[in-house]
């Protein structure tokens, strides 16, 4: 930062959920730890299955695997600090670490919305243009789309660090949140944040509304397409409804968080909605996109059976020998009765 932008505050105190008593904070830390571990294990399982099983190495599961990796990064960005706050009470975070956390939160969120657009387009081609699907969605195009989403969003969101560097903090260092979100930082700053907030809001809403319109347009086309296919209508509607439920949580929570001026934002409401966005939303990903899928469940069962056979080969041999002894004995018994 320049000389005029030097900050008096060198660290922040994250005050999120500080009003709760210690026992309730410990209970919440256990609940959030369980959710976090389930989220990481569920998404890691999806990544593993997509990488090792040829049946899942198609564009749809390639995108789901990338989304699963992103969800692990996204929830780790905020959940780890939240768990430390609730379990140990250590609430301090340096200014630079706070800015980095905010940058990764928005960069990963932007990447996720672009991936959702790509996935909706992939589903549109698979359902509405099945004959052209393989020719269009080649492996090279899939890799290009994913790399472009990551690089473009992390580059574009660098503006966020520039905006944060313009803020000065010369008063209270207590952030009324469990992570370094926009609203509490702008409210805490001594600077005139009106222009910075407008720039930030316009860019965030551009990403949100642009990706929302593109995603919905794909699903509207899919809806009209499956209405003309009675044989596949029930299955396609069930799949689309679960996807749209997830999209409603993601886009709805983000629009609620970032479509209001910072001075009008209720930080208590902000914290609750942010929990949906950072804890519940990544937790639902394995269940909505993969574990309700019959092929994924079949691949998972095969992987568990293979792992069990590798870990306990003796039990399989013993059971086989017992069976081979039982069969001749049974045959002899049948011979004697005859």
Describe the structure.
The chain is mainly α. It is 77% helix and 3% strand. It contains twelve helices and three strands. It has helices at 22-52, 59-88, 95-128, 130-136, 139-156, 158-165, 182-188, 194-226, 233-258, 267-289, 294-311, 313-337; strands spanning 11-14, 92-94, 174-175. Strands 2-1-3 form a three-stranded mixed sheet. Helix 2 (59-88) packs antiparallel against helix 3 (95-128), helix 3 (95-128) packs across helix 4 and helix 9 (233-258) runs antiparallel to helix 10 (267-289). Mean pLDDT is 82; it is low at 1-5 and 317-338.
Outline the secondary-structure elements.
Blueprint: E1 11-14, H1 22-52, H2 59-88, E2 92-94, H3 95-128, H4 130-136, H5 139-156, H6 158-165, E3 174-175, H7 182-188, H8 194-226, H9 233-258, H10 267-289, H11 294-311, H12 313-337
Parallel strand pairs: 1-3
Antiparallel strand pairs: 1-2
Helix pairs in contact: 1-2, 1-10, 2-3, 2-10, 3-4, 3-5, 3-6, 3-8, 8-9, 9-10
Strand content: under 5%
Query: What is the helix tally?
Result: 12
Strand order of the largest sheet: 2-1-3
Morphology call: globular
Structural class determined from secondary elements: mainly alpha
How much is the radius of gyration in Å?
26 Å
User: Biggest β-sheet, characterized?
Assistant: 3 strands, mixed
Helical residue percent band:
over 70%
The SSE string, one letter per element, is EHHEHHHHEHHHHHH
Mean pLDDT: 82
Question: Low-confidence spans: pLDDT under 50, at least 5 residues?
Answer: 1-5, 317-338
Number of strands: 3
- Distance, first to last CA: 97 Å
């Amino acid at each position: 930062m320049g000389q005029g932008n030097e900050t008096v505050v060198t660290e922040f105190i994250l005050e999120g959920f500080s009003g709760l008593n210690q026992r309730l904070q410990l209970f919440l830390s256990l609940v959030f730890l369980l959710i976090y571990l389930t989220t990481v294990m569920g998404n890691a399982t999806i990544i593993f299955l997509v990488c090792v099983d040829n049946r899942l190495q198609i564009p749809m599961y390639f995108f789901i695997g990338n989304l699963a990796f992103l969800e692990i990064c996204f929830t780790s960005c905020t959940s780890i600090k939240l768990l430390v706050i609730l379990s140990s009470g250590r609430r301090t975070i340096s200014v630079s670490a706070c800015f980095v956390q905010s940058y990764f939160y928005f960069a990963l969120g932007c990447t996720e919305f672009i991936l959702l657009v790509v996935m909706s387009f992939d589903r549109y081609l698979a359902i509405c243009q099945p004959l052209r699907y393989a020719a269009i969605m080649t492996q090279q195009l899939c890799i290009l789309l994913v790399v472009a989403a990551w690089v473009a969003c992390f580059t574009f969101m660098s503006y966020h660090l520039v905006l944060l560097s313009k803020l000065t903090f010369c008063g209270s260092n207590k952030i009324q949140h469990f992570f370094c979100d926009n609203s509490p930082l702008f409210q805490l700053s001594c600077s005139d944040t009106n222009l910075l907030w407008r720039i930030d809001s316009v860019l965030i809403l551009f990403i949100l509304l642009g990706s929302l319109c593109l995603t919905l347009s794909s699903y509207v086309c899919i809806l009209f397409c499956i209405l003309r296919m009675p044989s596949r209508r029930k299955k396609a509607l069930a799949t689309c409804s679960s996807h749209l439920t997830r999209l409603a949580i993601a886009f709805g929570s983000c629009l609620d968080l970032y479509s209001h001026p910072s001075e009008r934002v209720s930080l208590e409401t902000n914290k609750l909605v942010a929990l949906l966005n950072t804890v519940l939303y990544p937790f639902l990903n394995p269940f909505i996109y993969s574990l309700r899928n019959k092929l994924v469940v079949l691949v998972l069962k095969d992987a568990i059976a293979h792992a069990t056979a590798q870990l306990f080969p003796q039990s399989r041999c013993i059971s086989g020998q017992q069976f081979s002894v039982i069969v001749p004995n049974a045959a002899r018994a049948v011979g004697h009765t005859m």
